[in-house]
Amino acid sequence: MASPCQVLSRADRSIAQKQLELAAAEAWRIEAKYSRYLRGNIVDRINSALGNAVSLDEETANLVDFTATLYELSAGRFDITSGVLREVWTFDGSDRIPAEKRVAAVLDRVGWHKALWQRPLLSLAPGMQVDFGGVGKEYAADRAAALAASQSDAPCLVNFGGDIVAAAATVDEASWRVGIESLSAGAGEACKRIDLQRGGLATSGDARRFLLRNGVRYGHLLNPLTGWPVVNAPRSVTVAADTCTQAGMLSTLAMLMGADAEKFLESQSVRNWCIR
Amino acid sequence: MAVTDGSPGRRAPANGASAQIASQLAVATCSLLGIAASSLVLAEEQPEWEFDTALLYYGEDGERVQDLSLNILARRLFADDRILSIGLAVDSLTGASPNGAVPQDEPQTFTRPSGDSVYAVAAGEFPLDDTFLDTRYALTASWQQPLGRDFAGTAGVSFSTEYDYTHAGANFALSRDFNKRNTTVSLGLAIARDELDTVGGAPVPLSPMAGVGDLSGRAGSESKDVLDVLLGVTQVISEKFVVQLNYSLSDSSGYLNDPYKILSVVDPLSGGPVDRLLLPGAEGPLHEYRFESRPDKRTKHSLFGQGKYFVEGKVLDVSYRYMTDDWGIDSHTLESKLNWPLSDSTFIEPHIRFYTQSEADFYRVSLLDGEPVPQFASADYRLGNFDSLTAGLKYGWRTGGGNDFAMRLEYYRQDGEVPEDQLIGNQDQSSLYPDLDAIIFNFSFGFDF
Amino acid sequence: MTRIRAGLLCMLAIASGSACSSMGVEPWERDVLAREQMQLVTDPLEAGIDDHIYFSKEASSGGRGFGGGGCGCN
Q1: Cβ(A229)–Cβ(A240) under 8 Å?
Q2: Is residue C74 pLDDT above 60, yes or no?
Q3: Does domain A5-275 have CATH number 3.90.170.10?
């Protein structure tokens, strides 16, 4: 996941230790299973199937069902096959924007509707790739938090690089204080503080990965329908929801809505904080 | 290069951007995670406004000073750690204060500060002046913000007014963090200008207390300037222990006398009062008294250290302050509090404070008849040699709505004595000193929104 | 004055010593220090009230911060 992960617990030391071990083990398990960098895991098998159907295990099938639903709900904006666009887009802070022709060529290999999904069999068209990166970290946070919470009634918080779950709290418990990173003051400085007692918190933003050309800033979130970065998205969107997965999906969807991000979140009646 | 969002010709599924994406997402997530849905999301942005209010009762025994005050502190938090604080206090003071004269075996009479009338004190009683019924209003405001990555700055103003005294001041502070914020160094500066508009006019120092209607020994209004400098270091020692060390310098100049305080002129052999000539029909003091006189400059140095230690859920706070000044006063203050949580929402906090000070060089319990009047002299018990003790208990609770309440009851006692070399005949060291017994009761309420 | 000088030197030694040393905690170890009761001044209103009382009744003031003042307390 390439992010610092932490587990905060108000339980006794020995229980907290167990909670940490369970959370870490779950995080590593999910990372190993769904990382696109590892050979031999399910993602690798799907991506190198060359048009053949691959039979998915229960957990992976659930994830695919979930992302398929998201594809429908977002009118195609959330698409796990959009990862190949990485071949033409490198968000390293430089001004190297790819040519339209190159983007169009890669775009031919993007589109969930081009995949054939009939549980438990998934087959991709040649050249297509799936990537669970858009949902993996939040999913891992929720799973890890559930395992940690199973060990104790005391409040605990799981933070996987900004994807946060606060579990096992009652209304009277003191909150966890979460800071949303400030975009201007530099890493480590919070510009908004949220008291989180229970629920999931996730942030989508372009703070670190972007391109800058002619004064126009291109965030790293690509619209799978056009192949180009989303225009006029907020610099950062944070959403609080029942689970981190929901929070993460809503913040991603909001960013994908570009200029309509705030309106979208308003209409969904979720607690959110957008920074433009 | 044109960048557009959503292009025609690409087949997109039926429009799913309806208003209920969130609920459909919730259903999908529940089946993904294998959990039941819950709508309990408790995430709130840190409140913008924080209010602290306190009602204070301070009461000395006997007919001495009683103070009732209402205090409000409002803080508004802005993004990026910027804070605006506004404070308001209203004090209502009644009761009497020792005027500096010593008790005698005969009744004594004094002219009120206004010069309009007299007040009398029975034999053996400590002379108290009960002229002061006063209401004081005070306002403070300050702004705090980070300056760059490591620095933070504060700037503020303070203002107060009562019927014979006004104060206006400004303060600035700069602090810098080092060492992963484990060390903080601060530098602060405060300046103030106070104006005294004494009832009847500020008395000429060491002039005799005159009779009713005689304001010849009075001047007009006076002022004093104060400069404070503070240098401090805060250091995190461990996960549970933090300490602070401050050095401060305070420089006052101008009219530093207490315009209402006097000294008795006494017989050098018996210690008894010296009669004053009082014409028939005239009203005024029966005996000789002189108004006090203090130097017009005072420089104070203080060294203050504090440590807070967390142990088993309780926090122990211990602090010590040493003060010395060029008036010859040295003081030591040792204070400790223990914050003891009784439950998740309640706590008690016992508090104890020891204080001792030595008398000012020019502290005189009384002036001797016939001796040359010294340049400076004051019988104000607050410049004398005394020990004091404060002992109290605070009980606090937090309600479900996140509001904080607290009640605090404290006992404050001062015990002083007159320097031995100033005693005359059979006078006793401590009976000449107006000891103080006071109760402090404080009710506080804090809320934010 | 020599006592003050000694105190100042002592303070500077601690300050410079601590700035150089690795005394302290990592940012993720600050959970206890972040608690309200561990702040150096837990209740600024109460501190201000007490400072004012002792300023009126004693000859010393401040030390912790700028000690109140500004009143014609008799």
Answers
A1: no
A2: no
A3: no
Residues 32-61 of chain C whose Cβ lies under 8 A from any Cβ of chain A: 34
Q: Determine whether the interchain pair B236/C33 forms a contact, defined as Cβ–Cβ distance below 8 Å.
A: yes
Q: Do A177 and C31 touch (CB under 8 A)?
A: no
Chain segment B5-19, per-residue pLDDT in tens: 222 233 334 344 455
Buried b (16+ CB within 10 A) or exposed e, B398-430: beeebebebebebebebebbbeeeeebeebeee
Nearest residue of C to residue B238 by CA position? C24
pLDDT digits (tens, 9 = 90+) for A41-61: 999 999 998 888 999 999 999
User: Are B297 and B252 spatial neighbours (Cβ–Cβ below 8 Å)?
Assistant: yes
Distance from CA of A74 to the nearest CA of C (A): 37
Nearest of B170, B163, B227 to residue B196 by alpha carbon: B163
- Does the pTM of the predicted model rise above 0.90? no
pLDDT at res. C67? 53
Closest CA to B341 of C65, A123, C37: C37
C28 to chain A: closest CA residue: A6
CA distance A70 to A85: 19
Asked if the model's pLDDT at residue B78 lies above 90, the reply is no
Burial label, B248 (beta-carbon count in 10 A; 0-12, 13-18, 19+): buried
Range of the structural domain that residue B206 is part of: 58-64+96-448
Q: What is the pLDDT of residues C12-57, one digit of tens each?
A: 655 555 444 568 898 878 878 888 899 999 999 999 999 999 999 9
B417 forms bridges with which residues in the sheet?
B385
Residue A193 touches chain B, beta carbons under 8 Å: yes
Q: What percent of chain B has pLDDT over 70?
A: 95
- Distance CA(A41)–CA(C55), nearest Å, equals 73
Residue B289 in contact with residue B263, Cβ under 8 Å?
yes
Give the contacts of B287 (CB within 8 A, at least 6 positions apart): B104, B108, B109, B264, B265, B273, B274, B275, B276
pLDDT for residue C1 is more than 70: no
Question: B11 near A162, Cβ under 8 Å?
Answer: no
Residue B137 CA to residue A224 CA, distance in Å, equals 65
Q: What are the angstrom distances between the C-alpha of B347 and each of A171, B60, B338?
A: 19, 28, 10
Report the helix count and the strand count for chain B, using DSSP H and E.
1, 24
CA B347/CA B340 separation, integer angstroms: 5
Chain C within 8 Å of A177 (Cβ-Cβ)?
yes
- Per-residue pLDDT at B231: 96
Q: How far is CA B237 from CA A80, B310, B320, in A?
A: 49, 12, 18
Report yes or no for ipTM above 0.95. Answer: no
The chains in contact with chain A, meaning 3 or more Cβ pairs closer than 8 Å, are B, C
Q: Give the distance from residue B338's alpha carbon to the nearest chain A alpha carbon, in angstroms.
A: 21
Residue A3 and residue A31 in contact, taking contact as beta carbons nearer than 8 Å: no
Strand-pairing partners, residue B51, are B74, B447
Residue B76 domain-assigned (yes or no): no
CA distances from A166 to A7, A24, B303 (A): 10, 16, 45
Q: What is the DSSP letter of C9?
A: H
Is pLDDT of B4 > 70? no
Q: What per-residue confidence (pLDDT) applies to A170?
A: 59
Domain residue limits, chain A? 5-275
User: CA A79, A82, A87 angle in degrees (round to 5)?
Assistant: 170
The band of B77, judged by pLDDT with boundaries at 50, 70 and 90, is confident
On chain C, the residues whose CB falls within 8 A of the CB of B434 are none
CATH of the domain at B159: 2.40.160
Mutual angle of helices A13-34 and A133-149, in 10-degree steps: 150
The torsion region of residue C63 among left (phi > 0), alpha (psi -120 to 50) and beta comes to left
Tell me which residue in B11, B28, B146 faces A66 most closely, judged by beta carbons.
B28
Asked if residue B87 belongs to a domain, the reply is no
Assigned domain for B147 exists: yes
